[in-house]
Design a protein that fits this description.
Elements lengths: L1 H34 L3 E8 L6 E10 L2 E4 L7 E4 L6 E2 L4 E5 L2 H32 L5 H27 L3 E3 L4 E6 L14 E4 L4 E8 L11 E6 L8 E14 L6 E9 L11 E7 L6 E4 L4 E3 L2 E7 L5 E9 L6 E6 L6 E3 L13 E4 L3 E2 L4 H4 L17 E3 L1
Parallel strand pairs: 1-21, 1-22
Antiparallel strand pairs: 1-20, 2-10, 2-14, 2-23, 3-9, 4-6, 5-8, 6-7, 8-9, 10-13, 11-12, 11-14, 12-13, 15-19, 16-17, 17-18, 17-20, 18-19
């Protein structure tokens, strides 16, 4: 019995010792982690011929679409095309039931016969009136009947013009919409079909209202159609800027539509396809860097500059374009060749020695480093330019 109690006590003591050892190892590991120096990210400011850009989204739309209407509710007899077909100008598209047109022709013939008879009666009545055998009222009544019949003939002829027998294509193009159906009457309020010239498409980009001030006619762009998974880039330029704003269907923010034209034909794109684009801005002598590099203190902005001994110094800077995208423009306060910390935090102190990893360089109005890739929107600091942001 005593041996059993002694064994139990020994096991308890061993368990307590193991627990203390484990806790001590955990605390020791935590202390080591805490003492491990932080590796900050940094970049060098260098001169470059690069330009800043704005990354935006857009879509391909048709440039010239002809909508085919009819003025009368006619019954479709036969349709000779389908959606997606290419048609030539003058090609037969559909025919209509001829019964209504035949009925209108017969009404015209009957009314013209009636009109001829009334005109003959008027001539007879005039002769009787000259001899005293008719009254002036009788002549006036016949004249009114003749005019009424003439109006009916005019109305029937106008209706006959609307009662068409067939529709031929007014232009050459592709059938992009077809609502008419055989053996059903058409809706005069909507087009029977739409014919689009797909050789003349246009690309419309949505530029956020806070960026539109930087967009000008003739600016160079890079177009990245999603059909190519943004791996192919086509150059182009801005050719039109809308005078009104609208609400974006994708982001619900206010945007201005900007039309751009590719420098070459882009194969395999049709109206409705999505694209992204980089609109390149005019280069200048300002520095454009990631907002993550900037810190604020008492309504003043500063960043940390590293010297050749890894010692940082707080440097106050003058900035602009604070609210534009993910980047910010430095007007003054730093010089070319200096290294800045791109991931500062509140624990950094002026004069402190740090460890850092030097990444890509930041250019004056940067963007060149990111432009060599397929997407071209990554920016010099690797922060990316996706969506609607000012790239670097």
């Amino acid at each position: 019995m005593k041996n059993k109690k002694f064994l139990n006590m020994t096991l308890i003591i061993l368990a307590i010792i193991a627990l203390f050892i484990a806790m001590g190892m955990k605390i020791n590991k935590k202390n080591k982690d805490q003492n491990k120096p932080i590796q900050y990210k940094a970049m060098t400011l260098v001169n470059s011929s690069g330009k800043s850009y704005i990354s935006v989204d857009g879509k391909v739309v048709e440039n010239d679409t002809k909508k085919v209407y009819v003025d009368k509710k006619l019954k479709v007899k036969e349709i000779f095309v389908k959606k997606g077909d290419y048609v030539e100008k003058g090609q037969l598209l559909m025919t209509f039931d001829e019964n209504e047109r035949n009925n209108t022709v017969r009404k015209i013939e009957k009314e013209e016969l009636k009109l001829s008879k009334l005109r003959r009666n008027l001539e007879v009545e005039k002769k009787l009136y000259e001899r005293g055998g008719s009254s002036r009222n009788a002549l006036l009544e016949l004249g009114e009947e003749i005019r009424t019949s003439e109006i009916s003939v005019e109305e029937y002829n106008e209706d006959l013009i609307k009662t068409i027998e067939k529709i031929e294509s007014p232009v050459s193009g592709t059938i992009t919409s077809l609502t008419a159906e055989e053996n059903y009457s058409v809706n005069t309020e909507q087009p029977l079909m739409e014919i689009t010239d797909l050789t003349e498409i246009k690309i419309i980009l949505e530029v956020p209202e806070y960026d539109i001030i930087d967009i000008k006619l003739g600016q160079k762009i890079d177009i990245k159609p999603e059909v190519y998974e943004k791996k192919k880039v086509f150059s182009g330029k801005v050719i039109d800027i809308s005078k009104i704003s609208k609400t974006s269907t994708s982001t619900s923010e206010n945007v201005v539509e900007v039309e751009v034209k590719p420098d070459e034909n882009i194969p395999n794109i049709v109206p409705g396809f999505k694209v992204s684009a980089s609109i390149y801005l005019d280069s200048d002598e300002d520095l454009n860097i990631s907002k993550t590099s900037i810190m604020e203190e008492n309504d003043k902005y500063f960043l940390y500059v590293v010297n050749n001994k890894n010692i940082i110094s707080k440097r106050y800077v003058e900035i602009s374009d604070v609210k534009k995208g993910d980047h910010i423009t430095i007007k003054s306060g730093v010089s070319l060749g200096e290294i800045i910390i791109t991931t500062p935090n509140e624990f950094l102190k002026d004069g402190e020695k740090i460890n850092y990893n030097l990444e890509n360089t930041v250019n004056r109005r940067a963007g060149q480093n990111g432009a060599n890739g397929a997407d071209r929107a990554g920016g010099a600091d690797g922060m990316g330019g996706s969506g609607r942001s000012r790239g670097n």
